[in-house]
Amino acid sequence: MKKYSHAWLALMAIKRLDDNKKDLKPADQEHADSLVTWLMNHKDDVMQGAWYPDELIKDMADKHVLKFAPADKAPTGTISYPPDKFRPLPPEYLIFQYGQDSPVRQQNFNVVDPKDNLPDRCESLAESVIDHLKVLNHVEKGSPVTPTSNQVALWFFMLSHYIAGAHVPVHCDSRRFSEGKNIHGEMEKVWDDEINIYYKLNTQKTRFLYDSTGYPKPAVDFAADRSYQQSFLKAVVDELAKRKFDFSFGGANNNVWDFMNAVCHNSYLVSYRFFPPQYGPDNVTMENLKNLAAPALSINQVSAAVLADAIDSIARVWFRIWRRYEEWENKQKQD
Q1: Is the torsion defined by CA of 48, 50, 51, 52 positive or negative?
Q2: 53, 132, 167, 237: which sits with the fewest CB atoms below 10 Å from its CB?
């Protein structure tokens, strides 16, 4: 994904927590309230923080991806897993629903490069957020080892970048879609361009402008604009509006690492629906995407699924790690 997509997803994840905290039990509503307040105090940092992994750290080769291939197309020596090893996601996730009809769903699959470690990166950042919050609030202010709240916000927004990346189908597909016609870059450009059309940025394009509620300001009247009504961004908003906020990770996914593996598994399955097996980086273009053979999905379907599920996942992971921290903090006060 590109710069504005990452920032928009992070801000929309805050909004999802804010709008849907009523779905939670009272004690969890309190956690959601405090998290939203904390994140909103740092929202001007989202553009920079959510883009650092691409702009500064540049660990795209292994920490942004977990690529799979059908066993018969995988490099020799890699381990083959049976189809029942695909991790499930919460049933409302569109990438989970679409993946059920993937042409490779019943085939053995392999991780093609053991150095790929996107789930590990997400787990590491999640634990770092919790550790930094503990130190921030328990080490004497002014100590050289004390982090600042801005540094913790940076970890939050960086984490959102990696979570979002796991939802991009080509990040989990060993076919080289960054080569040939660069369908990878072209698809991500579609998402960024759409966000630029329908939301306002400041003149330097370093942050979104905000509406009266503090969230990204629309550039058009969403209720009246006919083109927005057909946009996949509208489909994202509509999809999330149908879902109650639930911070479970689905199935037997017990932690961030499990959950991000599940997202990657399902992104791989969706990639093979979006680009069926007979297609690859040399014979897919933005022009012929509409005419790929069944069971191919449209770019609007995939876009809505990727963006809606990414927003949901960022909100779930953020909430769970914040809740863990606050429960630990409350215990410290009781002790």
Answers
A1: positive
A2: 237
